[in-house]
Design brief:
Blueprint (H helix, E strand, L loop, with lengths): L4 H25 L4 H4 L15 E5 L4 H14 L5 E8 L6 H15 L4 E5 L8 H20 L3 E3 L4 H14 L3 H4 L5 E2 L5 E2 L7 H10 L16 H17 L3 H27 L9 E2 H5 L3 H14 L9 H12 L7 E3 L3 E6 L2 E6 L1
Parallel strand pairs: 1-2, 1-4, 2-3, 4-6
Antiparallel strand pairs: 5-6, 7-10, 8-9, 9-10
Helix pairs in contact: 1-3, 1-8, 3-8, 6-9, 6-10, 10-12, 12-13
Amino acid sequence: MGPHPAVAAIRLAVRRVLHDVLTEHSRDHHPITPAARAGAPAEPAPFSAPEPLVLVACSGGADSMALASALAFESRKLSLRAGGITVDHGLQYGSDLRAAEVVSRMTALGLEPAEAITVRVGREGGPEAAARDARYAALDAAAERHGAAAILLGHTRDDQAETVLLGLARGSGTRSLSGMAAVSGAAGRYRRPFLELDRQTARKACMVQALPVWDDPHNADPAYTRSRLRQEGLPALEKALGKGVVEALARTAQLSRDDADALDAWALEADATVRDDAGLLECAKLFALPPAVRRRIVRRAVIEAGSPAGSLFARHVEEVDRLITSWRGQRAINLPGRVVARRQGGRLVIRQS
């Protein structure tokens, strides 16, 4: 008899991602030679590159434990190594002990390396954003240190729905409504195998495999916006609109991502046409662009100047956009990350103060 349907579903999702990682790794380490490009038969060469390492970011919760278990299982059947990282944010009493316990669980699954990383959470952008920034910085550093080809994250379809609603509430535009990408980060480092699976599937997989799970009390703490949305907002929407809200929001994310990708490509191409010889943005040329394209160019310029993307909202971009579309001699605009935007001589000057 095969595995429980929930276990089979998570393993299949992870297997697909691992095959993608292996394919990319093989392509990167087997470049097409000039002779092969010219049509000459390629000489077989031994594959000397090490097996790629895939890490899982594991908090000890149901989603990440299910992911860690599936990675450990699938990696044994493929030509890759599997490890795990847990991040100790230091925000709760005993978090160091809990992190050590998660490392023990990952080791028991056969993940190697398995380590805990302690981070210091700042205050920029609020507690949730600051913790997220610290976590990703730690994961990036771990990937570089271990030479990992990819890091798996346990975000589910429910997390995607919450992200879309948060973006809608903040009025952050199409890119925010597109939610989390299945592949993101530098060189596609981050992979999210569970975006098409619900949270209950992961929890069921842990239960039938007798995997211990830690429920983070912050996930139920009404002090956090996402927690309130999870405990109150989404249930209220399902009560008012019926079942299927989560699935509909996840579909919205994908449709929005397709639109946002197309507009981002347009904006990237247009960026070079609206700058002067010194590289400054020319307001008259920006004004002639469609608003969706212009604002993307502005947002990108502000982020490149040093403003954290997670703290830069639509209202910030709109304020800078008014320097282009509604110029009345207004003062410089202060933006997150100590970035200042002003209009000078028909140019948009964006710098960190």
